[in-house]
Specification:
The complex is a heterodimer of chains A (about 525) and B (about 800). With about 525 residues, chain A is mainly α. Chain A has helices at about 1-15, 20-45, 50-60, 65-85, 100-120, 125-145, 145-150, 155-165, 170-180, 185-200, 205-220, 225-230, 250-265, 270-280, 280-285, 290-305, 305-325, 330-335, 350-360, 365-380, 385-400, 415-425, 450-455, 460-465, 490-495, 525-535. Chain A has 26 helices and no strands. The model of chain A is unreliable at about 1-20 (pLDDT under 50). In chain A, helix 5 runs parallel beside helix 8 (about 155-165) and helix 8 packs across helix 10. Chain B has about 800 residues and is mostly helical. Among the domains of chain B are: about 1-60 and about 85-90, no CATH class; about 130-150 and about 155-185, no CATH class; about 250-290 and about 300-315, no CATH class; about 330-360; about 380-585, no CATH class; about 590-705. Chain B has 29 helices and four strands. Chain B has helices at about 10-20, 30-35, 40-55, 90-110, 130-150, 170-185, 185-195, 200-220, 225-270, 285-290, 300-315, 325-350, 355-375, 390-420, 425-440, 440-445, 470-480, 485-495, 505-525, 530-550, 550-565, 570-585, 595-610, 615-630, 640-650, 655-670, 680, 695-710, 745-820, and strands at about 60, 85, 165, 165-170. In chain B, strand 3 and strand 4 form a beta hairpin. In chain B, helix 24 runs parallel beside helix 26, helix 25 packs antiparallel against helix 26 and helix 26 packs parallel to helix 28. The chains are: A mainly alpha (about 525), B mainly alpha (about 800). At the A-B interface, helix 23, helix 24, helix 25 and helix 26 of A face helix 12, helix 13, helix 14, helix 20 and helix 21 of B. Chain B: Its main location: nucleus. Chain B: Belongs to the NOP14 family. Chain B: One of its GO terms (biological process) is maturation of SSU-rRNA. Chain B: Involved in nucleolar processing of pre-18S ribosomal RNA. Has a role in the nuclear export of 40S pre-ribosomal subunit to the cytoplasm. Chain B: It is found in: Nucleus, Nucleolus.
Chain lengths: ~525, ~800
């Protein structure tokens, strides 16, 4: 039947079209017919199994730019293999005759060949080949054991290929995670399993790096465990009896935990560490049924210093809060995080959120709080406007809450001798900037001159914010959250986006000179600098 | 307790007997001894009290009996008797009476039209004696007459000065009408009045009397008598009239004198035509008349005069000029103006200038409106010279003109400088420079130049340039010229399109100013780069133009700033723009719509860049110097400058660049040495090794000064915050009836609401009573009608019966007669 219709088509086609394009199209149709024929033949009879090789060749042939034909071949092969797997042609048991075993082995080899071919051509074809691969994997899952699935099933092969390839597979990875991992209850479990297996294998350095980075990015993109558990979609285990494929909650968590620990063991680079740390609380920690296991990683990161420490802080806080972790000399460590780069850091709002929480404790000694305030003020003196507007309300809140520290903004010298001495000789700042122990800095004896200086900040809004320190403390507390997200961009944007309400004042005096100096042909310092800029 | 009280009748009898009204007749002796007290009055009073005491419904008193003095003080009188709160019977009967007098006639008159109102006084009143009637009529007549001619001074009021009880009879009349009004207020008031006890009423009467006494005592001096007052007024007005006449005569004399001198003045004015006085004087018809002596007819003279006056009115010289000021005065005025402006600037720097900004804004709005008004509505020939507005414009022009001169002068300096430094075109430049010095005036400026063919420098030909409205147009204009001619081209365009020449020039120049702003951004992109003196002159031109069209220029600057915001790097053109902003706008303002975003952009660049490459370092050095220029007056603190300069020095730049950075650092240090507290934290000693020895020494000195100037912070010399009290406020002599609401408005509104409620209730009660009254009356009428009908009916029936009876009797009689007869 099919043949006859095809024949008719072939006969009618030349009548409707002419020329070279016509012959090309005809040729393509011919080839498509051929592929359909072959596929049909394979499904119909075992004798045609050898045609698989031709079909595979068609599927692998990509150099001619015949995408359509190739896809046609792939689709046919998908049909063929699904059929073969479903009809039990891939099964072998102890009682299977030797001849059959050979055939099964051969078929399996062909399937692997097909899979590899698809994986190889994945970049650029993610949206057409990934569904084929996953579809095959689903069919395979129904007829094979989970172990096989994780060992060298199609899913495992896909994950391995994706994890071990470079940038050209980046898009494939995102599509894979987005379409087949996110929103499913079972596939993350399989992913964890396969990933762990991959990590256990020995590899060369470059390959290991690649694997680590790819796995990390894939994992970062997955959903956190609680969300996985809530999901009710199953990628593989559709019927009830296969539900065990999805793994129980404990299994899932254990896999996740082990996988993360394995990843940590491989030694993460700094950016990778930061990436993990930024996701610790929401993604990594929920996997850990024993969060103490995270401690090593977190404390190591916390001790690294710099922005890694800032990020590790939230993880450490999580452990302290949830797991009663005792962190020795926590505040000393916290104090050491207040360095010059803090206010310029990207993660400053994150840090200040936590810092506010830590410092809001009612059991802290005033000397310690004073040290924090003084140090923060010092930093604000050299910080960008966005940082300054965070520090000032924070200090205000601290001062308001701890009246014993308000001596830092208002200290009247009562002793007449001492006063005279100060009048005559001035005074040094008692604050010891280099001291690392916040209890010993003597900041409590110092004053917050820095904040006073900031009231003359060039930016009007910052100056206005800075003035709250000198005003009466009427407000209970400022909400720090409102001040966290200022940056140069947002500040300038807010100024320029406003329409001019009134006519700007123009300077009344027109200056005689801008670039030129007093003498003829002379330039002043601005002019000279400008000249050298222009000369470049 | 077991015994019941005797019956009412017995009680009455006994009390009558007790009071000696009834009972056994007294002996003659006793009667005589009683004679002293007025017998009849006494008896009446006693009877009324007895009546009251026996009718428990005549008096209204508090329901509750006496309890405690404190709680029920109002219901118990001093003598322990219940206070009479009202007399329902009395009030009711009064209300009834009032209704019968007012409502009943209305009711009867309902549905009837017309009628005659008798307004005669006392015509039907038999109680009035003829004298009284006459007196009343006279009084009425007098009031009517007085009302008509209230200001009739001739009338001597004493003639009808009828008085009563020492008061003018007219006043008395008014009192009467007041009283009747009071009565008309109705029953409500009666009950209110009745609620007061006799004592308080009496007090009020006494109080009133006392008050009137006081008034009488105070008044005699003020209230001399109307006649006297009027006499004084007349005397005063006569005096003023005399003064006016005198002044008028003086004016007249002066005018005559002026008329005599007119010829001479006209001759001075160059007219040679007689008959026109100075235009400033108001045209008085007297002038025309006074010139009759000349021999012409009055009409001709008038016409001549009007013509001349019209001419002179349009004569520019007719405008009153300001007195020529001395050099010192001018200098003083300039100094004053600068001082005022600087004070204004200082206020803005402190961020206090919100209201003044508003004021300024409105001023400028007014200006803008004025310009718009002038350019769109009034054609030039219709404009009237010598008006306020033109005066103002003239002042502006003068101001502008000064700047113009200033600019022209600097142009020359600039070109001299430029030409002597620029050795590209030696021969031309020398001649030009020579020319310039020898003949420094505008027409000669371009003589002997190659570009003469393209540029006509004479102001009369300057119109050959169109006023460019877009940057492209300007570029096409500039195409044939060299860069060095740019200032003079701008100068020409500005001169040709001066705002005072044509009204639409204002808009044109405003567009041109935005073009110039675009042009300085463009100048930065040129290769070879534009000479700085030229850029400087362009910036100064923009500054001058920005004073007349601040909005357009500022908008363009802000557009450029927005463009800079989107890029991360600064081109030389952007640097030019930022530099221009630093001079054109008052950068010391607390907030300025152009300057603040500009310095924020500088801050952003410095904050986000480190001086890694030499070019970055160089741009940074320039920006730091520029930012310091922004801050030089306000001495504000800018952390980015410090951070950038120190990091630039740490990168070990080339010596010249390092010198620039060090110079910047020192400027900063000088600028911020006013905050000794934070100064050492700003300039930590780690900077010192980066500086050259002399600068380091200077910084050390400043640091030592800062140490000496440092004092502990004393920021909170505020009044301590009061602890919030939750205790209620204790009121001495608290009266529950009084309101202690501190909010006066609320008290007022409460009072009003209460009054409204009371009035409403009263009115409703009155209406209800009225309705009852009407119903009662109607019922009464109906009953009367029915009774009358009944009577009539009975009468008729009786009549008929009588007639019938009579007939029957007659019949009987007849029958009997007949019977007997049979």
């Amino acid at each position: 039947m099919a043949k006859s219709t095809m024949k008719r088509k072939r006969e009618t086609d030349p009548n409707t079209r002419d020329g070279s394009s016509d012959s090309k199209a005809a040729k393509r149709l011919q080839e498509q017919d051929r592929i359909d024929q072959l596929a049909q033949g394979i499904i119909e009879s075992r004798e045609n199994y050898n045609d698989l090789i031709e079909l595979l060749a068609a599927a692998e042939r990509s150099e001619q730019g015949k995408g359509g034909l190739q896809r046609h071949a792939v689709a046919s092969l998908f049909g063929v293999f699904s059929h073969l797997i479903e009809s039990g042609n891939f099964k072998k048991s102890k009682g299977t005759p030797q001849k059959e075993v050979v055939i099964v082995e051969w078929l399996r080899e062909r399937l692997v060949e097909f899979t590899e071919a698809l994986l190889q051509q994945l970049p650029g074809n993610e949206n057409s080949y990934l569904p084929v691969l996953i579809g095959l994997a689903r069919v395979e899952t129904q007829h094979a054991s989970p172990e096989a699935l994780w060992q060298d099933g199609i899913f495992a092969r896909t994950v391995r290929k994706l994890s071990l390839s470079g940038e050209d597979f980046a898009n494939a990875r995102t599509v894979f995670v987005g379409d087949y991992i996110k929103g499913y209850r079972d596939s993350p479990f399989h992913l964890f399993k396969v990933a762990r297996k991959l990590l256990k294998q020995r590899r060369g350095d470059t390959e290991a790096d690649l694997l680590r980075s790819n796995l990390l990015h894939t994992l970062i993109d997955t959903e956190p465990v609680p969300q996985i558990l809530e999901s009710e979609n199953f990628l593989f285990a559709q019927d009830g009896k296969r539900a065990r494929l999805a793994g129980s909650e404990q299994e899932l968590k254990r896999e996740g935990q082990e996988l993360w620990l394995d990843l940590f063991k491989t030694g993460l680079s700094k950016p990778q560490q930061k990436l993990v740390l930024s996701k610790t609380a929401e993604l990594v920690a929920p996997c850990f049924s024993k969060p103490e296991l995270l401690l090593d990683f977190l404390t190591d990161s916390y001790n690294t210093g710099g922005s890694v420490s800032l990020l590790a802080l939230s993880g450490v806080y999580y452990l302290i809060q949830e797991r009663n972790l005792e962190y020795p000399s926590f505040f000393q460590k916290l104090y050491s995080l207040l360095d010059d780069d803090l206010l310029h850091s990207k993660h400053r709002s994150r840090f200040f959120r936590l810092l506010e929480t830590f410092l809001s404790s009612t059991h802290l000694p005033s000397a310690l709080l004073a040290s924090f305030m003084k140090k923060l003020s010092r930093l604000a003196l050299h910080g960008p406007p966005g940082g300054v507007v965070i520090v000032i309300p924070l200090v205000y809140n601290l001062l308001r809450k701890n009246p014993s520290t308000t001596f830092m903004i208002h200290r009247e010298t009562r002793d007449p001798e001492a006063r005279e001495e100060i009048e005559n000789e001035g005074m040094d700042d008692p604050f010891d900037d280099a001291e690392t122990d916040p209890l010993d800095t003597r900041a409590i004896d110092s004053c917050l001159w820095e904040l006073d200086a900031l009231t003359t900040h060039y930016h009007p809004n910052v100056a206005t914010v800075a003035k709250i320190i000198a005003q009466e403390f009427r407000k209970e507390a400022y909400s720090l959250e409102d001040f966290l997200d200022y940056s140069y961009a947002s500040i300038i944007e807010s100024e320029l986006s406003k329409e001019m309400k009134n006519v700007p004042v123009v300077e009344y005096e027109i200056p005689k000179r801008i670039f030129t100096g007093e003498g003829v042909g002379e330039l002043n310092n601005l002019g000279q600098l400008m000249n050298s800029i222009l000369a470049q | 307790l077991g015994k019941m009280a005797p019956s009412q009748l017995k009680q009455l009898k006994s009390s009558l007997r007790d009071h000696g009204i009834s009972g056994p007749s007294q002996s003659k002796k006793a009667r005589k001894s009683d004679q002293s007290r007025s017998k009849k009055g006494h008896k009446e009073a006693v009877l009324s009290t007895l009546r009251e005491s026996f009718n428990p419904f005549e008096l209204k008193s508090a329901v509750r009996p006496r309890k405690f003095d404190v709680t029920s003080s109002k219901t118990i009188g001093q003598n322990g008797k219940a206070v009479v709160l009202g007399r329902p019977g009395v009030t009711k009967s009064r209300g009834e009476e009032l209704r019968r007098n007012t409502l009943l006639p209305d009711l009867h008159r309902r549905g009837k039209v017309g009628g005659i109102q008798d307004r005669r006084i006392g015509e039907m009143d038999r109680t009035l004696t003829p004298e009284e009637r006459l007196q009343q009529r006279l009084a009425k007549e007098a009031t009517r007459r007085r009302g008509k001619t209230m200001f009739d001074l001739d009338e001597d009021e004493d003639t009808i000065g009828l008085t009563h009880l020492g008061k003018d009879l007219d006043d008395f009349e008014e009192d009467i009408s007041d009283a009747s009004e009071d009565e008309a207020r109705g029953e409500n008031d009666y009950s209110d009045d009745d609620r007061e006890d006799g004592a308080s009423r009496k007090r009020r009467w006494e109080g009133d009397g006392a008050a009137s006494d006081v008034e009488d005592g105070a008044e005699p001096e003020r209230k001399k008598s109307k006649a006297e007052v009027m006499k004084e007024v007349i005397a005063k007005s006569k005096f003023h009239k005399f003064e006016r006449q005198q002044a008028k005569e003086e004016d007249h004399e002066i005018r005559e004198k002026l008329d005599k001198e007119t010829q001479g003045i006209l001759a001075l004015l160059g007219k040679g035509k007689p008959g026109a006085p100075k235009a400033g004087l108001p045209p008085a018809p007297a002038n025309g008349i006074s010139k009759d002596a000349g021999g012409e007819t009055a009409a001709e003279k008038r016409r001549d005069y009007d013509e001349d006056r019209g001419k002179l009115l349009f004569d520019q010289r007719a405008k009153p000029t300001e007195r020529t000021k001395t050099v010192e005065e001018l200098e003083q005025a300039r100094v004053d103006r600068l001082k005022a402006m600087d004070e204004e600037r200082a206020r803005r720097m402190r961020g206090e200038a919100d209201d003044s900004a508003e004021k300024l804004k409105s001023d400028e709005d007014g200006d803008a409106e004025f310009f718009g008004f002038q350019s769109s509505k009034i054609p030039e020939e219709d404009r009237m010279p010598g008006e306020e507005q033109t005066d103002e414009l003239g002042f502006e022009d003068e101001d502008d003109f000064l700047i113009e001169d200033d600019l022209v002068a600097s142009d020359m300096e600039g070109s001299v400088a430029e030409y002597s430094s620029d050795e590209e075109s030696e021969d031309e430049s020398t001649t030009f420079a020579g020319d310039d010095i020898v003949n420094p005036n505008r027409t000669a400026l371009g003589s002997g130049r190659k570009a003469e063919q393209h540029i006509d420098f004479g102001p009369e030909h300057a119109g050959s340039y169109p006023c460019p409205q877009s940057h492209e147009e300007f570029l096409t204009i500039l195409e044939p010229t060299t860069m060095d001619e740019l200032p003079s081209v701008i100068q020409k365009i500005r001169a040709a399109y001066g705002a005072q020449l044509r009204p639409e020039n204002v808009e044109k120049l405003s567009a041109f100013s935005t073009v110039l702003v675009d042009h300085i951004a463009y100048l930065g992109t040129l290769q070879p780069p534009a000479p700085l003196p030229v850029v400087e002159t362009v910036i100064r031109h923009i500054h001058s133009l920005a004073r007349s069209s601040p909005l357009a220029v500022s908008k363009t600057f802000r557009t450029h700033l927005r463009r800079i915001q989107t890029t991360s790097d600064l081109a030389p053109g952007d640097l030019f723009l930022l530099t221009a902003i630093s001079t054109i706008y008052p950068t010391s303002d607390h907030f300025h719509q152009v300057a603040t975003p500009a310095i924020s952009l500088i801050g952003r660049w410095l904050g986000l860049h480190t001086a890694k490459t030499p070019s970055e370092s160089l741009t940074g050095a320039y920006l730091v110097a520029l930012a310091l220029r922004y801050l030089r007056l306000s001495a504000r603190y800018m952390p980015e400058l410090l951070r950038f300069s120190t990091s630039a020095l740490r990168h070990r730049p080339a010596p010249t660049l390092a010198a620039a950075h060090v110079a910047n650092l020192l400027t900063m240090a000088e600028l911020w040495s006013g905050t000794p507290g934070a100064f050492p934290a700003m300039f930590p000693s780690s900077i010192l090794p980066l500086l050259d020895p002399t600068s380091a020494h200077r910084l050390r000195v400043l640091l030592a000064n800062a140490r000496r100037g440092r004092r502990p912070l004393e920021l909170h010399h505020h009044r301590p915050l009061a602890i919030r009290s939750v205790q209620p406020k204790f009121e001495e002599n608290y009266n529950p009836d009084k309101h202690y609401d501190p909010d006066a408005g609320r008290t007022e509104s409460k009072k009003l609401a209460k009054e409204y409620k009371r009035e409403r209730k009263g009115a409703m009660r009155e209406l209800r009573k009225d309705a009852n009254f009407v119903a009662r009356e109607q019922l009464k009428e109906k009953k009367a009608k029915d009774a009358a009908y009944e009577v009539k009916y009975r009468k008729l029936v009786a009549e008929i019966n009588e007639e019938g009876g009579r007939g029957r009797n007659e019949y009987d009689r007849e029958r009997r007669k007949a019977g007997r007869g049979r």
